[in-house]
Amino acid sequence: MNLHTKKVLSLGSLRIEVPAIVASLSGDVIKKAEMAEDMGADLVEVRLDLVTGDPLRVARDLRGVTSLPIIATNRMRQEGGQFKGGERERLALLCQASHWADLVDVELRAEGRDWFMKSAEVPYIISYHDFEGMPDPLVLESLLSDMFKSGANIAKVAVTPRNLNDALELLGFLLKTDNPICMMGMGEIGRHLRALAPLYGSVFTYGYIGEKTAPGQMSVEMLRVTLDILMKISSDYSGEHVHHND
Asked: pLDDT for 94-139, tens place per residue?
């Protein structure tokens, strides 16, 4: 396996070189989006539940200030979101915002997921978040299977490793599949996976500009520097010829 080789992920007419860094934007999204590309982001994610101002207006205006692909997300409260309306309203807002997005992120456990996926017309990230811990391997494998059976173009799993063995299990899942997976560890123990998992096959990793949107998240700038160094190291290593003296 060649760890440093980038690939092109094709999602309909969308082409994304992976692994890619996603800038997760909250608050003053427009201002941060204007800085995202210079800081090293490859995509931006608008957190509709965390924006300042009218979410639909922000989603529309975002389209005009960045050339980067846009992910629209309106995170459910049970998975760390702050949207104050009902579930139907939450997904309806996300569906409307998808008109200005290139991808949408909807949760596997969302009650209205099937209805939503018949309404939005862009590629889907189906996600699962656990801020307390992580499922055992068999449950996690079942969750990933359910995501792709449900129509995911990309499966996103963000869980909280309790120890380094948990972190190793997450990397192992990336090595066992050819499907597009975004795998992230949250919290302090999982923090290093945000830079390391892309070398094992995670198609996206998420960073912040200004304020964190998840525990253990790294800034986009730090992710860009760290990921570039790791990929350079793996590239240099793969080209080395080791000579052994008898």
From this structure: 999 999 999 999 999 999 999 999 998 999 999 999 999 999 999 9
C-alpha torsion angle, residues 70, 26, 62, 48 (rounded to 10): 80
Cβ atoms 158, 191 nearer than 8 A: no
Mind listing the domains of the chain with CATH numbers? Answer: 7-126+192-238 (3.20.20.70)
Q: How confident is the model over 45-86, as pLDDT tens digits?
A: 999 999 999 999 999 999 999 999 999 999 999 999 999 999
Beta carbons within 8 Å of 59's beta carbon, 6+ residues apart: 46, 48, 70, 72, 96, 97, 99, 100, 101
The DSSP bridge pattern shows strands 14-18 and 20-27 to be unpaired
Is the distance from CB of 177 to CB of 144 less than 8 angstroms? yes
Judged on CB neighbours under 10 Å (0-12, 13-18, 19+), 190 is buried
Q: Where are the beta strands (DSSP E) in 4-110?
A: 7-11, 14-18, 20-27, 43-51, 70-73, 103-107
Cβ density class 128-166: b for 16+ within 10 Å, e for less: bbbeeebeeeeebeebbeebbeeebbbbbbbbbbeeeeb
Q: How many whole angstroms separate alpha carbon 12 and alpha carbon 122?
A: 9
Dihedral angle sign, alpha carbons of residues 73, 187, 145, 179: positive
- Which residues are part of the catalytic machinery? 129, 156
* Predicted pLDDT of residue 216: 85
Query: Hey, what amino acid is at 215?
Result: P
Q: What share of the chain is helix, strand, coil (3-state, %, to 5)?
A: 40, 25, 35
Q: By the 8 A CB rule, do 108 and 127 touch?
A: yes
